[in-house]
Specification:
Layout (H helix, E strand, L loop, with lengths): L3 H4 E4 L3 H6 L4 E6 L5 H12 L3 E9 L3 E4 L2 E4 L3 E8 L6 H7 L2
Antiparallel strand pairs: 1-2, 2-6, 3-6, 4-5
Protein name: Large ribosomal subunit protein uL23
InterPro entries: Nucleotide-bd_a/b_plait_sf, Ribosomal_uL23-like, Ribosomal_uL23/eL15/eS24_sf
Organism: Thermoleophilum album
Length: 98
Amino acid sequence: MSDPRSVLIEPVLSEKTYALLSANKYTFRVHERATKVDIRRAVEQQFGVRVRDVRTAWVKPKPKRRGVHSGHRRRWKKAIVTLHPEDSIELFEGQANE
């Protein structure tokens, strides 16, 4: 993946991800074909931080139903990025304080 903006789709904001902030771990929804190296480069370029570790996981699709029609959402890939202890991303910090 050449463009770092196409690798990171959006930050994942939930109670679990806010709990990970204390361990300096940030969670992102990423492109399906993004590798750990692509994710590391994208975070370092976009936020100007040093990445220590990248872990990826596939989020299973949830079943959805509307009346008699049933289906499911698409699966998606998430990445949990661990930063150097001296670094942080203000995007998350500002949201956590609200």
